[in-house]
Amino acid sequence: MPAPDNRAAPSPRITLHSLSKFFGRFIALDRLSLVFEPGEFVVVLGRNGAGKTTLLRTLALLLLPSEGELKFDSHPASRLPHSFKQRLGFVGHEIALYDDLTAEENLRFFARLYGIADGPRRAAEVLAEMDLAQRAQSRVRNLSRGLKQRLALARAWLHQPDILLLDEPATGLDAPTRERLHEWLARCHQSGRTVIASSHDLAESLRPATRVLLLESGRVLFDGPNAPNLAEELRAKLVTAAREGAR
Amino acid sequence: MSAWRVATALLRKDLRAEWRTKDVSTAILLFGFTIAVSFAFAFKPTPDEARLIAGGLLWLGFLFSAVLGLNRGFARETANNCLEALRLAPADPGSLYLGKLLSNLLLLLLAELVLLPVFGVFFNLTLWARPGWLLLILLLGTWGVAALGTLFSAVSANTRMQELMLPLLLLPLTVPVLVAAVDLTTLLLAGRPMSEGGLQFRLLAGFDIIFTLLCWLLFGYVLEE
Amino acid sequence: MDVGLKHLFWAFALFWLVHAGYLLNLSFRQKRLADELRALKESLGRKGSV
Amino acid sequence: MSDSTYHRVSLAVFAATVALLLYAFYQVFFIVPTEVKMGVVQRIFYIHMPSAVVSFNLFFVVCIASIGYLKTRRLAWDSVAVAAAEVGTVFCATVLITGPIWAKPVWGSWWAWDPRLTTTLILFLIFVGYLMLRLYVEDRNRRALLSAVVGIIGFADVPIVYMANRFRGQHPAPVLGGGEGSGLAPEMLTTLLWSLAALHALGLLLFLQRYRLEQMRTEVNELYRALRA
């Protein structure tokens, strides 16, 4: 995947202030207070159900917090205009693409929703960037899991957002493609964008990130700069947390 | 302007996908046809009786098959959680509603035009004596059903009992449409002057305008989580 | 007159049946929740004292 | 509302309701003169019509509370909406039960397609749908949002349903509908007003109990969360 353009994007600073999200009796996020500086590359780790997805979906403005506040620069998320969503790109668990349209048609459709001036050209560009050009005319239904995931990334990248929010982006990708995803993310990061990606695989996903956030039961268990051998330390923390939880 | 861009993008996307899979149209047409046949067996009316009851049967058939079609139509947005991508887009939810409404309306109208002759044959009706009026009644009635149906297909897609919730909510709310459209169709079939249906026309138009506006305003809340 | 009285009786009887039934239903539901609340408060107290 | 004020208020409402109901029923059975044309069965009117008014007012509350929820996102508004909707549906049911019982001896048929009663029937179905919807949405906020939308649309539909039924035109003219020059005798009007007051008090009583239930449910959820935290 070639380099993203080198526009130095003035990403907004993201601030969470005592933010909680409840689903009925379940606490998905428990009074999180965090700041994501512009241009950070954060990897969010944690076991299934730790709150990674909820955090990313809240940042993508897909979920309303139950309590607390989310701000982009000084603007509360609840008062942002629809046009602000231009600056966010998100890939979730499901690919959010239409099965019965081709890869290219999907991207052209979303290009129109985002009001991209030359939609067809941009769609072709992004397809090439994600190595999907030769499958452009295949219907999504007929793509393999890995190709679908790449197309979902292409959709999120179509409007060149300042903030990339990726929920387990490496799902379904084979080892070489995963490697290229990491390179691509690193380049997105170098162009000044904020990248926040989640993963449940400690060792694999750590390399390109600058900051590591470990969640457990909706709370922060570890938050600090990336370092070699961090994975071992995090694993130990998780084991301790699990032991305490069982008590 | 951007609202129109979004609405037409959604409309084109829906029509293209429908052209390929024919999900919605098969649902409406097959169900509508089955209903027409069942009504014909159940009632076997004489020509005079047919003119009196055909309006009601026709609209009941349309309404029930519309419920099926609307459910299928929104299933396209929930598959792969495509709705999420729509919610991520910097588009006003009102324009998403309009796009969805237009595609539903178009598909329902086309299906109704195919189903009309079926009812015509079974109930021995002369439907095309005043085609302009017939089309107007069809348009106004179907618009009302589609306006509410588009919103409620999104509502019911969020519940555990999807297929059941839509008719449960939609059918009582569209009683005015049913009443007015049936009255007008009966006038038409009986060969009476359409000026007798002034009140019904006004009611249908009022219903369509009020609920298109209201649903346009409220659609954003349905998409939220 | 006779028929009228019968209908009058049934109308009032059913009216009260519905309302009394609903009030009873409400109090059952409230009671169940009150029990649940009490149990929860107790276990919360235990948890706090540990 | 704290627990003790809540108990005081609900006791006061309960006492007022009982007193008002007793007085209103005394009026209905012992004071008001028997209507000439319809006979003794016309006394059903004094619970039938006020019940319809109460349920209609409660559905109006649903609509207002729904708008309130969408504007403020406070779940208390949603609790008001669901309480009003449920009690309103119960009153609606009594209207639908007493209506035919009254209609049979007077018009000779149980269901005479009176536009008001027909509208009430549709209203009943709409709000049964509203309550069903709430049953099948798990998430509290999601449930509040979706049902607020249904509540607003459902209420907006009522006048249109009424108009649609009015020009169906094969029903007997409403002989007694309160107003429209049907000429209520003064005693009848007083009795009607007392009944209206009494049934509104009953409505308020049931509403407060139902609201209380919803608050308890919220509290249970909060405690469960506190227990996990």
Question: Can you describe what's shown?
Answer:
The complex is a heterotetramer of chains A (247), B (225), C (50) and D (229). Chain A has helices at 52-59, 103-113, 119-129, 145-157, 175-190, 202-205, 230-246; strands spanning 14-23, 26-36, 41-45, 67-72, 75-76, 88-91, 163-166, 194-199, 211-216, 219-225. With 247 residues, chain A is α/β, with parallel strands linked by helices. In chain A, strand 1 (14-23) and strand 2 (26-36) form a beta hairpin. In chain A, helix 2 crosses helix 3 (119-129). The longest helix of chain A has 17 residues, at 230-246. Chain B is mostly helical. Chain B has one domain. In chain C, 96% of the residues lie in helices and 0% in strands. Chain C contains one helix and no strands. Chain C has one helix spanning 2-49. The mean pLDDT of chain C is 88. Helices cover 79% and strands 0% of the residues of chain D. Chain D has one domain. Chain D is mainly α and 229 residues long. Chain D has helices spanning 3-31, 45-72, 75-107, 115-135, 140-166, 186-228. Chains in contact: A-B, A-D, B-D, C-D. At the A-D interface, loops of A face helix 6 of D.
Cα Rg of chain C: 22 Å
Give the CA-based shape of chain C.
Answer: rod-shaped
Number of strands of chain A: 10
Run of helices and strands of chain C:
H
> What structural category arises from helix and sheet content of chain A?
alpha/beta
Oligomer: heterotetramer
Q: How many strands appear in the DSSP assignment of chain C?
A: 0
User: What is the makeup of the main sheet of chain C?
Assistant: none
> Main beta sheet of chain A: strand number and arrangement?
6 strands, mixed
Low-confidence stretches of chain C: none
N-to-C terminal Cα separation of chain C, in Å?
74 Å
Strand percentage of chain C: under 5%
Number of helices of chain C: 1
Name the largest protein-protein interface in this structure.
B-D, 34 and 32 residues
Mean pLDDT of chain A: 88
Topology of chain A as a string of helices (H) and strands (E): EEEHEEEHHHEHEHEEH
Q: Round the mean pLDDT of chain C to the nearest integer and report it.
A: 88
Q: Indicate the low-confidence ranges of chain A by residue numbers.
A: none
Note the beta-strand portion of chain A. Answer: 15-25%
- Report Rg of chain A: 18 Å
Layout of helices and strands, plus pairs?
The complex is a heterotetramer of chains A (247), B (225), C (50) and D (229).
Chain A: E1 14-23, E2 26-36, E3 41-45, H1 52-59, E4 67-72, E5 75-76, E6 88-91, H2 103-113, H3 119-129, H4 145-157, E7 163-166, H5 175-190, E8 194-199, H6 202-205, E9 211-216, E10 219-225, H7 230-246
Parallel strand pairs in A: 3-8, 3-9, 6-7, 7-8
Antiparallel strand pairs in A: 1-2, 1-4, 4-5, 9-10
Helix pairs in contact in A: 2-3
Chain C: H1 2-49
Chain D: H1 3-31, H2 45-72, H3 75-107, H4 115-135, H5 140-166, H6 186-228
Helix pairs in contact in D: 1-6, 2-3, 2-5, 2-6, 3-4, 3-5, 3-6, 4-5
